[in-house]
Amino acid sequence: MCFQCIIGMIIDTFTVGVVVAKLMRPRLTNFTVHMGSDLFFVWPVTVVHKINEESPFYKMSATDMLQAKFEVVATLDGTVESTGMSTNAKTSYLANEILWAHKFENMVSYSATHECYEANYENFEKLIEIEMPLCSAEDFAAAASDGEDKGEDKDEEKCIGDRRSKTSIEAKKKKSSELYKPQGL
């Protein structure tokens, strides 16, 4: 499981700087992810945060995500190498804006006609729904290791039992906007 956001610039440029994402929750400490110091923006970049034991999302199921009160703040600070100009971009995502079981559609493809790779910016905000259990990464890892211990491929009973119908999740998502009331973030 992972958390993704996509970054792209319309101009071809080499940006020197740091991409940082922070998770902020009321009354809890920040979790900071440093994504690297040099990014080459010839193509759009998908920033991926792998959800593992150290991730603040590790124990969150799809239902928990809908009811949680947090904000992910993503910032990009850098310098355009060719001009020396500073650039800064900032965005944030509330829990109810994060889509479970989705990934970004591929934007880069090889053009046999032009014999080169091309970026299709029409796909910049397009998402693909994927199959994914609704349980937390922690529960999924536990179910997978239980299956290995028993000599099975996977014992996903723990996660399957947590599945809800799509309409149930969508209904909860609509209500989730009422659950998040900013409190000085």
From TrEMBL:
SUPFAM superfamilies, alphabetized: E set domains (SSF81296)
Keyword Transmembrane helix attached: yes
Domain of life, per lineage: Eukaryota
Ranges of compositional bias, category Basic and acidic residues: 147-171
One Pfam assignment: IRK_C
Entry-linked PANTHER family: INWARD RECTIFIER POTASSIUM CHANNEL (PTHR11767), INWARDLY RECTIFYING POTASSIUM CHANNEL 2, ISOFORM D (PTHR11767:SF113)
Protein known as: Inward rectifier potassium channel C-terminal domain-containing protein
Lineage: Eukaryota, Metazoa, Ecdysozoa, Arthropoda, Hexapoda
